[in-house]
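thoughts on my protein:
***
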Amino acid sequence: MTQSAAAASTSSAAAHAAIAAAATTDFFISEADVVRRAGRLGAEIRNVALGGDLPDAAIEAIHRLLLRHKVVFFRGQHHLDDAEQERFARRLGDLVPHPTIGALKGTASILELDASRGGGRADQWHTDVTFVDAHPKFSVLRGVVIPEFGGDTVFANTVSAYEDLPAPLRQLAGSLWAVHSNAYDYAVKSRATDADRKHFDEVFTGTVYETEHPVVQVHPETGEHALLLGNFVQRFVGLNKGDSQKLFDLFQSHITAPENTVRWGWQAGDVVIWDNRATQHYAVNDYGNQKRVVHRATVDGDVPKSIDGQRSILRKKVAK
C-alpha cells in the first residue's frame, strides 16, 4: 500500500469511527423511531414535532442522525409555517438567503420552489449553491403543496461514491479542482420552459459567480471525503471542456448509481433535511402541470477544504 493510500485508509477509518460514536441511542429519539430508508443513506425519524423550541438534546440528536444518514425525513409536520420552519432551522446554524434569488418576503432564508413558475423544478443532479465558496451546510425543505402523484426527490451519497472509486480514480479525483458557476449551460435542461429561461437569465444569473472547488472535499465535522460535483460544474482546472466532460460523467456516474441513492415520496407537511456537504439531489419532474410548492430554509456553511488542506476560492462575482 502506498503512503497516500494508507493515509486515506486511516482517514476513512477515523471518519467511520467518529460517526459510529455519534450514532449511539439517544435519550430523546429512540432507536425504534429511526427507520432506515435505503442501504447507504436516508432515515425517517418518527414521533418528533419539529420547531424552534425543541430542547438542546433533541437538536443534538437530529444533528447526529443527519451526519450519520446524510438525509433525514419527517412526516406530518403540518404545524410548521415559514417562521417556525426558520426558527427550527436556525437551531442548526446561521441562516442564509439564496445568493441571487434572495429570500421570500418576510423571511431570512426561505426559498420558494413553485413548479408553476420559472426555476421551480430542480430536475438536475446538484449540490446546493456550489457556485459560491462557502456553499450551504444543511438544507431544510418543507412540502407545502404536493402533487397527487410524482414529484419525488432522489438523494445520492457523495461520501460512499468516493469510497467506491477504484484507488487510481480516488487518487485522480483528489488531485483535481473544478470550476463551478451559476452561469452553466442551461440549454442542456431538456424541459426548460420560456419562463424557466427568463428566470435563469434575469434572476438566477443576475450576478454571475465562479468558484474553484476541490473535487474531493473533507467533511468539516466527520472527516469523511466526499465528491464535490453536480450540475454547476463547468470544467476541471487545467483541462479543456471535452476532457472535463468525460471525467465529469465518469465521477458523476458513481455518485448517482442506483445503489448509492434514496428516493423520497413526498406528502404535504413533510420536512426533509440533508447534509449538503455529503449529498447531491434531484427533483423528479414527472408530475406534469400539477401544482408542487416546497419551501427551503438554508443553513450557512464553511469554505470547503481539499485533502491537502487547500480552501476553495471564489474567482468571480459580477453583476450583469
